[in-house]
Records
---
Amino acid sequence: MGISAVLNIASSGLQANTKRLATTANNVANAGTPGYNRLETSLTSQPYGGVSASVSPSNGATFTDTSNVDLGSELIDMKTAEIGYKANAAVFETGADLWAVLAT
């Protein structure tokens, strides 16, 4: 595996965690909306080594007078996305540093 592959994998992880955080922010923003059905983000590994994210409505109970958003769960999802983003950013930065060393 080359350094460019490492950078591409880290980049896909950054994009997936960005989508995950955006979905969580959307859920928190709509927590007080009657009838709102929480969205979930699924991460899937790709054959080339990266990861992709897809968003779909949750399979949980749907209420007409409230939403099915649990703010505690959203906080955990937000923290998990933050940790994943930081890890992929560190990998990307290390790969970029290696690229710079090899280019000189």
---
Amino acid sequence: MVPLHVPVLLQEVLTWLDPRPGGLYVDATVGTGGHAEAILERILPGGRLVGLDRDPEALAVARRRLERFGEAVQLVQANFADLHYVLRALGIARVQGVLMDLGVSGLQLAAPHRGFSFRLAGPLDMRMDPASPVTAADLVNRLSEKELAELLRRYGEEPFASRIAREIVRRRPLSTTHELREAILRAVPRRAWPRRVDVATRTFQALRIAVNRELEALEQALPQAAEVLGLGGRLVVISFHSLEDRIVKHTLRRAKSLRVLTPKPIRPSPEEVRRNPHARSARLRAAERVEP
């Protein structure tokens, strides 16, 4: 059975997005459909949800999960950086709400062939869209030592970026997740290994972000989401690390058409973290369209 991604901060999403019957909503990162299912249950009768995702495997799961809603849901394989284009193609000018959950899904992490997890042996892939041209192996094996170190510092905030890059270059070519993790373990002094997270976490995060151009996509998607909101419409974003959260915070504050509803990010309760450790680093921010 395919593992479903447990929707993070579900009740908080419903509170801040405030989906209502008859409304038109967008789940811009629909994944396997956890948040979308809860939203659809609240917007019927008469409501409609458009779900976007880059990952065709996740969309296939979402279609099965949401098929009971029939024509009330429409799923599109697309990057949320193309949100405006997708909605225009569907003849949609304004929506009542947009949700973005920036986390990696359990489906992706549990699939060894996708290469997202250092805990599972698999190829160094990490592409959310398998049709994308660049894999993690391409970056690991083709970038110079200097370029690799800069990538790890920029996207992973890795304090041992230079040492890790040097060890990667020394061991190249690398082709599997376990080969990369072994290089990281050898590069980082054991006394410096973090207690709460695996020592390979920052490097894998950095490569995933670079492979999928995640921060660039987020910077493009947020203004589009603000633009398509109708008056009083809500934008809700869940981020999982400081780089994403910083972009979300500053973009919402700078947008003249939006009023920030969450001066400080909403965090998961201790109970939710116990049930779903993946939620530990989640931060939710919300804003409302206040100008036409």
---
Amino acid sequence: IDFKARSTGIGNLSAEEAAIKIRVLPRLYLLLPVIALVWFIAADYSVTWAIVWTILLLVVVSLFRQETRLTPSRFIEGCLDGAKQVCQVAVPIGAIGIIIGVTVQSGLAMKFSSQLMEITGGNPILTYGMIIFGCIILGMGLPTVAAYMIGAILFVPPMINFGISPLGAHLFVFYYSILSMITPPVALAAYAAAGLAGASVTKTGWAGFRLSFVCFLIPFVFIYDEGMLLKGPLDGILIASGTTVLGIIAWAAFLAGYFLGPLNRIERAVFFVVSIGLIAPTVAGTWIPTLVAFAVIVGWRIFKANVLKKEVQKAAQGE
């Protein structure tokens, strides 16, 4: 999105308009309820009690500053908003609970897993492709939580059968279940975005899909490199995280056709190859050539941008 905005010049603001007037640090205490919720769950409190104590802490924390203080009217408004949001999730979750109960009790989930293995012939790439397709199709029109729950029941078991860690398998399914919200032809999130922008739903959906396509590669890192799951030695975790970040930057530059200036076809092709090499499995040593290639193409773009800047300055001085 940043590269696209820079290439089109959309969103340019003056220094005064871009200045952040709201200070963040004095309001960090508002994160205490979130931290407390995580701690309560980690301390083996039941989810119900964890939420109850967190809500009580939220009320106390809101009293610290006048602008965040929960007045009776704000409290009632918050309760109404909470009830509305719960209804949006509770209804489909209730229906999905029935589906999950049927699939588990009937053994459909395990049968589906075995059928998927037979269809793909045990080929991991084909299996992952079918899972991606299934997550996106089943997730269309459903809230994120509901889409993930269906995907977890049907698609996580075959991934674990391939030797993928449970955490990696769940994150893989979770990511693609979320991406179903911005994948045409449904792209449910596009309806909300188009309503705010007063734009065409179809055009908004395809634009959102193109801009978010960088996210479609990230789940593969979870299943191919456990360093992204914070597993293994520290150097492996740092290499996996660092190469993935650089790979995403290269992938975004390829998609937007922009990095310190417009890219020609050869430069875009180089960024594409580099992005795949950095995001792909970081087996020992294989990331080094692509990292060198990334440094070379970035250095070339910096050099090219500086040359262009000097030419513009000379032209301005000549005028």
